[in-house]
Structures are given as C-alpha cells and as structure tokens.
Design a protein that fits this description.
The chain is α/β, with parallel strands linked by helices and about 500 residues long. The protein contains 17 helices and 20 strands. The chain has 3 domains: about 200 residues, FAD/NAD(P)-binding domain (3-Layer(bba) Sandwich); about 120 residues, no CATH class; about 120 residues. The chain is globular, with a radius of gyration of 23 Å. The mean pLDDT is about 95. Bound molecules: flavin-adenine dinucleotide. The site of flavin-adenine dinucleotide has 36 residues, from helix 1 and helix 17.
C-alpha cells in the first residue's frame, strides 16, 4: 500500500486504537487532542499527595486466552502495568438493618447468601445465578459480541452467520433478562432489600443481562483493577502508538472538519491552522462531530432520530476524598442503603456508592487512602449553576460535606481525617472531554440501542469515519478499542489490502 495520511480527532481509547491500527496498516497518522493528555474519560489526576482515578473501574478480560486480550496485546495495552483480580464486585450494606451482601467470585456462596436474605425469592435467585454460570462458561463472555462486524464490513451472509453464532444469546433480547435491572427487580423480586440490591448492581436503567455479564466476568476471574490507576493502561497504548510512528498533538481543538465535494479533506484547529489528510476519523463526541464540526450536513433520518431520542448515560458528580485512614478490609465498591435519602442537585437517592482505592499503593501515601463517591446527576443543573462560579463552588462544597457526614455513620472519626476534597461535576467532565452533556460512556445500552448497528461512516461523506463510544451503545474499554480497529478494517477492505496486526 502506498502511504496514505490520516487525521484522528481525539486521543481517548478509540482514537489511540485507531491510530495504532492505522500505523500497522501503512497509514501515516496524527492525532489532534484538545486536552493536555491522552485518555479522554479514562482520566486520572493528582491532588497533592493523592492520586484520583476518575475513570475505568475495571478492565474486562485482563487475562490471556481471550480474543479481547489479544486485541489489547495488539495495541500494547498489556504487560506494562500492574493489575489485580477483582474477586469482589460489590458489597451492599443496609444501614437500616443488619443486612449485608457481597457479590464475590464464589457463586455457590453468593447463591446461599442471597437466599439467606431473601428466602421468598429462592427460585428467582437460582434462575439468575444459573444465567451467571451459563454466561461464565459461554464463549460470548470472552468476546462480548465485539467480533460482530460493523455494517460496512457485512456481506450478504454475514448477518445470518452472526445470528447463528449469537443464537444462544437471543434469550437476552426477549423475556425477563432483556429488561432493565429496575424493571426486572420490580417484576421478579419480592424481597425489598434484594430489589434495591438488584436495581443498583450497575444502573437501574441498564439491562439485567449486563449485570449477569459483569458477575460472570468476576466469577471467571476476568475483571481486573488497575493497581496504579487507569492512566497506566492509557500510557501503554500511547507508547505503542508512538513506537509505531504515530504523533499526538495536544492542546489542539478541532473546530471544523474541512469538506470539499462531499469528501473530508482536513481539519481546522482553534488556533486557525488547517491540516490535510487522505482520511479523517473522529473518535470524539458524536453530537459535536456530526452537528458542529460537520455542520449537520451529513445526516439521515436514522441519525436525526438517534440524536433526538436516544439517551446518553447520565453524567456523574464525583466526590473524591483523601483520608488519613486505611480501609484494608473494604471491598473496592460498597453501596450503602442509607437511613435517610440523600438530596442533592435536585435528586433524591437512597443508595450511596463508595469506591475505595485500597488495591494499590499509588493512590495515597502509607497510612492514607483515596475514597470516592460517584453519583448520577443532571447536566442542566450543573451547567446552569456553573454560570455563577461562586454558587457552583458553594454547591460542590456542600455536597462534599453532606457525603462526609453520611460516611461518618459507617466510619466514625472520618470527618477529622479528611485531608483532601475534590469534586468533579458533569461540567468538569465536559470541559476536559467535550462529551455531550458530560456523559461518561456515550449511549445508554437498552433493548433498542443494542439492536442498532451504528455505521462508522456518515451518509454522503467520503473519506470520513467515526470510532468510539458514540458509535457503540454502552461504550466501554474493549468496545471503544474495537471501533478503532473496525475503522482500519473498513479502510483496508476499501483499499483492497489485507488488514494486518502485529504484537
Ligand atoms: C467513571 C468511568 C468509569 C468507567 N468504567 C469503565 C469500566 O469499568 N469498564 C469499561 O470497560 N469501561 C468503563 N468506562 C467507559 C470507558 O472508559 C469509555 O467508554 C471509553 O474510555 C471511551 O473512549 P472514547 O475514546 O470513545 O471517548 P473519550 O474518552 O471521550 O475520548 C474522546 C477524546 O476526544 C477528545 N476531543 C473531543 N472533541 C475534540 C475536538 N473537537 N478536538 C480535539 N479533541 C477532541 C476528548 O478530549 C477526548 O480525549 C468508564 C467511564 C467512566 C467515565
């Protein structure tokens, strides 16, 4: 292949992945990233002696022997950082009673413990855990449907072939396991505590099969925690990209994608410079790419409908605390069912999720810890508040104080041990990643969105491609990496070249 040039917008995981595969397949690529570092939503930042990991909670398929791990290997995302097996996914503690449940990798114990707290739901508990067992041993778990081709690569028979391969998974598209976790819990679980637990294992709006999949990953030993923070994963891909000859330009915000005769030919940066390439790939926010950078000139009914009616994951407000205290025996994630609901930013919630970074030494000096509460919230609330900086700062401070007060119930004395408070709102997230309404993971996975294969191209526009969480509902690390790979596979097919990878 004669060397062609590629410009990639965004150095998140999808942009980096696109870049690595582009370099492996003879493209000379450059990534333009508006922030000062790579990673996008996989973000880690320092506050004094504390390291705050505000990104990836766990890495799916972190061990060799799966097709997803092979893909991580191709882009250099293995081996250069420390990762711990996540043997406990979540611990639930009900403050109003003595009830306690822990979701570990031991499914027999989990079944036993769940039946203990909700004997009236024994049949449903067994049915649910049977699904986890099934998923754990299914080849789907180590592929997660990622090898499903994007629409541009599908031949006539491919859809039929994929349907055949996915036939055992079809039960998750109809029936009770296709429901959202909230609906499933409301309709199938009788015990009030277990209902709350099931609703909050991931998100009440996400499908229950997604929860089954996460529990199966834990049981199969295929969820990993970044002991040094998720930036180490990102940096290993950056190194791979650089070693393949790719270049990243930081503080480089794209304002416009240049188009001539319905062909993407380059980009205009906010500093006024223009850069040209044979192929332009946006691995940035979908809405701003399509409607701002391209002026909404390349949309069809499907795209219009998607951006009008689909719901992105709710943004988060993230309260991180540096504490002069150790949390040696805590699970990495605990959800407290609170005595009194917590009112914040126009919402009221009864469950407080606490992330404890006690699985690595990088987050805090000896004897101290970083802990974090991440709450779903509303974009408009924080955006409007941010128009008045003083009020915005007061609200952040009050929320942090309220959370510390709540934690005092569980960890007496913690208030006086707090040495660092950091509050990141959806506005913060938008400012650094430019994602629509500060969304952390792109489109919500629902029964409807998962069925729609989003093309990596736009109608009527040549030499332009999209990768990342806005072309794959649910986003996620493996998914976003695959979308970058897909773009280069499509290009190779277009160019009649064999798609090449190397480790
Ligand atoms: C808190 C949190 C926890 C998560 N936990 C997990 C998990 O445990 N497991 C999992 O698999 N997934 C998890 N995810 C999801 C996963 O991290 C994301 O789906 C994935 O990293 C998104 O990558 P991306 O490259 O598609 O998008 P992004 O990370 O959003 O990258 C887009 C990049 O484009 C840049 N950009 C945007 N506009 C422009 C422009 N105009 N010019 C130049 N640059 C631009 C942005 O600055 C950004 O760097 C989590 C996400 C969050 C936020």
């Amino acid at each position: 292949m004669s060397q062609k040039s590629m410009i990639i917008i965004g150095a998140g995981l999808a942009g980096l992945s696109t870049g690595c595969y582009a370099q492996m397949n003879g493209y000379e690529s450059r990534i333009f990233e508006h922030h000062i570092k790579s990673g996008g939503v996989a973000a880690v930042w320092r506050r004094g002696e504390f390291l705050i990991d505000g990104g990836i909670h766990f890495l799916i398929c972190h061990k060799p022997g799966t097709s997803i791990y092979d893909v991580y290997s191709e882009i250099g995302a293995v081996g250069s950082y420390e990762i711990a097996d996540m043997t406990t996914y979540l611990r639930f503690i009900d403050e109003t009673s003595t009830k306690f449940i822990e979701f570990t990798n031991d499914l027999d114990k989990l079944t036993h413990d769940l039946i203990q707290i909700a004997p009236e739901d024994e049949d449903e508990i067994r049915a649910l855990i049977r699904e986890v067992e099934w998923m754990k041993d299914s080849p789907l778990l180590t592929d997660l449907g990622m090898s499903t081709s994007p629409p541009e690569l599908k031949g006539r028979l491919d859809s039929l072939k994929e349907m055949w391969q996915m036939r055992s998974f079809m039960k998750y598209f109809t029936g009770k396991f296709s429901k959202s976790a909230g609906d499933y819990a409301d309709n199938n679980i009788r015990n009030p505590f277990l209902k709350t637990v099931i609703r909050n294992l991931f998100s009440p709006d996400g499908p229950i099969w997604f929860v089954i999949m996460i529990l199966a990953c834990v049981a199969a030993g295929q969820l990993g925690l970044f002991k040094g923070g998720c930036h180490e994963f990102v940096n290993s891909i950056v190194e791979r990209y650089n070693s393949l000859g790719g270049q990243i330009q930081y503080k480089a915000k794209i304002e416009k994608i240049l188009v001539e005769d319905d062909t993407a030919v380059g980009v205009l940066l906010s500093d006024g410079t223009e850069h040209r390439a044979d192929v332009i790939v946006s691995a940035a926010d979908g809405r701003s790419t399509i409607f701002d950078l391209l002026g909404g000139n390349y949309v069809d009914d499907k795209i219009e409908r998607r951006y009008k009616t689909w719901r992105p994951f709710d943004p988060m407000v993230v309260v991180s605390l540096g504490v002069a205290r150790e949390f040696r025996t805590e699970a990495p994630l605990t959800v407290f069912v609170m005595r009194e609901p917590l009112k914040y930013a126009g919402r009221e919630i009864s469950c407080l999720p606490l992330r404890v970074f006690n699985y690595g030494d990088a987050f805090a000096p000896a004897g101290k810890s970083v802990i974090q509460v991440m709450l779903e919230t509303d974009w408009e609330y924080w955006y409007n508040l941010r128009q008045n900086r003083e009020e915005y700062d007061v609200e952040k401070k009050q929320l942090a104080e309220e959370i510390i007060k709540r934690l005092e119930d569980q960890y007496p004395g913690i208030t006086s041990q707090v040495e660092m408070i950091d509050v990141a709102t959806p506005y913060t997230s938008w400012r650094y990643t430019l994602n629509d309404r500060g969304s952390p993971m792109g489109w919500m996975i629902t029964k409807k969105t998962i069925m729609e294969l989003i093309p990596r191209t736009l109608p009527g526009l040549e030499n332009f491609y999209m990768a990342g969480q806005w072309v794959l509902p649910g986003g996620g690390v493996p998914g976003c990496i695959y979308t970058g790979r897909n773009v280069v596979q499509i290009l190779c097919k277009r160019d009649n070249e064999k798609f090449k990878t190397r480790i």
